[in-house]
């Protein structure tokens, strides 16, 4: 690979950067500022900066304002050009730093300013990212926009855990669900969610893991169906813990799994023991045997 390839540039900038992102920076006035303003809704992928698209990288290089979520890592933020204004609009499950309406207002304010504005989100903006709601606010304010997709957590985490989301022998369909939704879980279509030969990927499912396992078993999934919990997927602190639906809540509790974490349910999870490839990440197989658990805990 030649040394002027953009990939190489990304690597060296990450390694050298120690830039703090919380303080607004003085804005540079140059040719970019003279271009007509637009808001770019950009997905930053699940964590590993090398999973950014080239289009996302180029936009971070020319952005004048970047409004980002808390899930976007420092490594990725260090790729933003030094003169851009960085605004953290992040929110986490119970402690929102900004309400969605405030974020929409900020987007409209910056989008009206004739600047190149990047709205940077974890994963893909259209997968549990409220990207649609933000674009609707821009449409209402007559502000131009583009969408740059990112690798969603399901795809990134599964790949880095060695879990193919589909496999001809095990799973023909994949379903993404979230445990954090406006409607109660009572209203979800559980018979369809619990279908056999289907891989289920659960976003934001940690806090509701017990009800999830209970419903899936009640609606037909076998209690010994394989389950993986992937914490901080695709990053250097990734942990992949496997178990079964029956042991899911035990697994989350005993391994003290923290957010962000993704739950994958389905027979394909069993392939992780042979397809796990991500350097330095040992698959943790959770069993109910407490002696084995202590050995594994020491290895974490
Ligand atoms: C608000 S949703 C955003 C999803 C994002 N738009 C996407 O496409 O991946 C946040 C949830 O995504 C999942 N997630 C995102 N990044 C993750 C990662 N690196 N490892 C594990 N789960 C992740 C977790 O379930 C987390 O609670």
Automatic annotation (TrEMBL):
Pfam families, per database record: TP_methylase
Keyword DNA damage among record annotations: no
GO terms for biological process, alphabetical: cobalamin biosynthetic process; methylation; siroheme biosynthetic process
UniProt keyword annotation of Ribosomal protein present: no
GO terms for MF: lyase activity; oxidoreductase activity; uroporphyrin-III C-methyltransferase activity
InterPro entries (alphabetical): 4pyrrol_Mease, 4pyrrol_Methylase_sf, 4pyrrole_Mease_sub1, 4pyrrole_Mease_sub2, CobA/CysG_C, Siro_Cobalamin_biosynth, Uropor_MeTrfase_CS
Domain of life per record: Bacteria
Annotated PROSITE patterns: SUMT_1 (PS00839), SUMT_2 (PS00840)
EC primary class: transferase
UniProt keywords, alphabetically: Cobalamin biosynthesis, Lyase, Methyltransferase, Multifunctional enzyme, Oxidoreductase, Porphyrin biosynthesis, S-adenosyl-L-methionine, Transferase
Family statement: Belongs to the precorrin methyltransferase family.
Protein name per UniProt: uroporphyrinogen-III C-methyltransferase
